[in-house]
Request: fold
Amino acid sequence: VMHGKCILTALGPNVSPGLRDQVGEAFATALGAELSLTIRIVGVQEIAHPTMGQGKEFDLLFTSKTPNGSAAIRKLHDQAQQIQGTVQEAIRKVTSAGKSQAWCSSTLDFYGPQAAKLPKGSKIKEVFGQRPAGHS
Reply:
């Protein structure tokens, strides 16, 4: 099982309110295509960008069942820049933003008798992007 949190930022004067569902769908489609997985959106919170004034920030939670967790974590690690670019472009398009940014933290939980024997334990975390200012 993979789950995660993303902070997606859409900057620019053309970003209209009420886009959380479209942003969630665009994110799920983009990340799902990169990882060859079905991504389910658990929730999206849309807020005015806290420091830039023009634009929106979307805090998003997601989950996915993956038949091959090692392949997913490897892609998240090895292709982080490409995945980040794909996600950012999808968000930019759906919001009409001049610029978009993405920070995502994904955790894979492994289950079964062999999970405890994994070198990094039964939970493996991968992060891409830069966490926005003011978030810890």
User: Anything to note?
Assistant: The chain has three helices and five strands. The CA atoms of residues 29 and 39 lie 7 Å apart. Strands lie at 2-11, 40-48, 55-64, 99-109, 123-128.
